[in-house]
Design brief:
This protein has 454 residues and is α/β, with parallel strands linked by helices. The chain has two domains: 271 residues, Type I PLP-dependent aspartate aminotransferase-like (Major domain) (Aspartate Aminotransferase, domain 2, 3-Layer(aba) Sandwich), CATH 3.40.640.10; 140 residues, Aspartate Aminotransferase, domain 1. It has 16 helices and twelve strands. Helix 2 runs antiparallel to helix 4, helix 4 runs parallel beside helix 11 and helix 14 crosses helix 16. The termini are far apart. The relative contact order is 0.12.
């Protein structure tokens, strides 16, 4: 991993604004990292409290919302200042910015919110979830490096690890059943394996990873732990459970509007700063830059993420419980018969539920497609669409959509049934209204002759 040339640029403090000349004589002391990042002890029992304790940016003219810094490039008052910035001597920690691919004040403010949410020293927000994942893996791993990963992953991540990184970067991956801790331990090669990578809740099978134990196993062998927490923001805090880095597709629950593509890397300040290094930083040189206008919009949505997640989770639990009573094969970590139900309870943040995703296994792709057709076009329960975290319910047959990058054998090993319908449960309407629509579709599905044989 490349060493950083910069100071703690990922988390600029409350530096005095420069007026008239570049004040670089040291009298504009910033707030210490500890006082800026730390949260009162009780707050970390609840990510919403941590968010409320994070630094709040006001607008340029006193607005309650921060201003959008839309500039691509930034001016300096003295020629010497630019040389010092490029030498890594001055940076955003003292209100010196070079270029928005490097650091942008609005994007940095969103990064502070993401770091507070996940309980990490720093965070940097990117143009997509995949750019966050690929950048952090390429920063930690050099050519010839090795990754151990869960065999059940989002299809795009699986393709990145299986095809792209070996071809383009000579980085190889061993896939394991993340529930088999002995297999994980055996797969990690001390001195070679750089990363243990898994999802806190797997896409789409909803397997819950034992983050504390997996982190202990990886750290014992000198590997870093990178966890994709896209399915469980607020519900789980992997960094507090032992993980080194937490990545997100902010496009999903955190955004909530199905209108933005974005990602985040949350982790140690040393790592985040190294990723922005002018000469060796993956984020700086690959350029997955977040637009500051997008960062502003997202910063306005994060404060009510906790409220949204609670409702997503409550609806998912209610539907899963009722479907199970009807004899339908439903997968949801909130059900007591889920294999990792007790594990999730032991790790989860209190009062946020068990996640907003549930799966219904219709066994065959044909039956899965019939169900989704009825749910959308007959009962108006939700939409056939990929992604998740929207206020409407979104559903897809994972094997032929978001996991289609995996071949049949890989899907079977990952536990993905051909008829597995992934549902991101929305919160629009009343619970009973939406349940009535779901029941209507299920009743219609059983009618003889509908869509041919049943």
């Amino acid at each position: 991993m490349a060493e950083t040339r910069s100071h703690s640029f990922a988390y600029p403090g409350s530096a005095k604004k420069r007026q008239g000349s570049d004040d670089i004589d040291g009298d504009d002391m910033i707030v210490s990292k500890k006082s800026l990042l730390s949260v009162p002890g009780a707050a970390w029992d609840d990510p919403a409290a941590a968010l409320a304790s994070a630094r709040h940016e006001f607008g340029e003219h006193g607005g309650v919302n921060m201003s959008i810094e839309a500039s691509a490039t930034f001016t300096v008052m003295e020629p010497e200042t630019m040389r010092r910035m490029f030498a890594g001597e001055l940076g955003p920690d003292r209100d010196f910015f070079i270029y928005s691919r490097h650091f942008n004040p609005t994007v940095l403010s969103l990064g502070r919110q993401m770091a507070a949410l996940e309980g990490t020293e720093a965070a940097y927000c990117t143009a997509s979830g995949m750019s966050a994942i690929s950048s952090v893996l390429m920063q930690i791993c050099s050519s010839g490096g090795h990754v151990v990963a869960s065999r059940t992953l989002y299809g795009g991540t699986h393709a990145l690890l299986t095809h792209f990184l070996p071809r383009a970067c000579n980085i190889t991956t061993s896939f394991v059943d993340i529930r088999d801790h002995a297999a994980v331990r055996d797969a990690i090669v001390a001195g070679k394996t750089k990363v243990l990578y898994f999802e806190s809740m797997s896409n789409p099978t909803l397997t819950v990873a034992d983050v504390p134990e997996l982190s202990r196993i990886a750290h014992d062998k000198g590997a870093m732990v990178v966890v994709d927490n896209t399915f469980a923001p607020m519900v789980l805090s992997p960094a507090r459970l032992g993980a080194d880095v937490v990545v997100h597709s902010i496009s999903k629950f955190i955004s909530g509007g199905a209108d933005i593509i974005a990602g985040a890397i949350c982790g140690p300040a040393k790592l985040v700063n190294s990723m922005m290094d002018l000469h060796q930083g993956a984020l700086m040189l690959l350029g997955p830059t977040m637009n500051p206008k997008v960062a502003f919009e997202l910063s306005e949505r994060i404060p009510h993420l906790g409220l949204r997640m609670k409702e997503h989770c409550a609806r998912a639990l209610a539907f899963a419980t009722r479907l199970k009573k009807m004899g339908i094969r439903v997968i949801y970590p909130g059900l007591e018969d889920h294999p990792q139900h007790d594990l999730l309870k032991s790790m989860a943040n209190k009062d946020y539920g068990f996640g907003g995703i549930m799966c219904v296994d219709m066994e065959t792709e044909d039956r899965a497609n019939r169900l989704m057709h009825l749910l959308q076009n007959y009962a108006q329960f939700g939409f056939m669409a990929v992604s998740l975290g929207y206020y409407e319910t979104l559903m897809s047959c994972s094997g032929s959509s978001t996991s289609s990058e995996m071949n049949e054998e890989e899907q079977a090993l990952a536990g993905i049934s051909p008829g597995l319908v992934r549902m991101s449960v929305g919160y629009i309407g009343t619970l009973e209204q939406k349940w009535g629509q779901l029941e209507k579709a299920l009743s219609r599905l059983q009618e003889p002759g509908l869509f041919g044989k049943n």
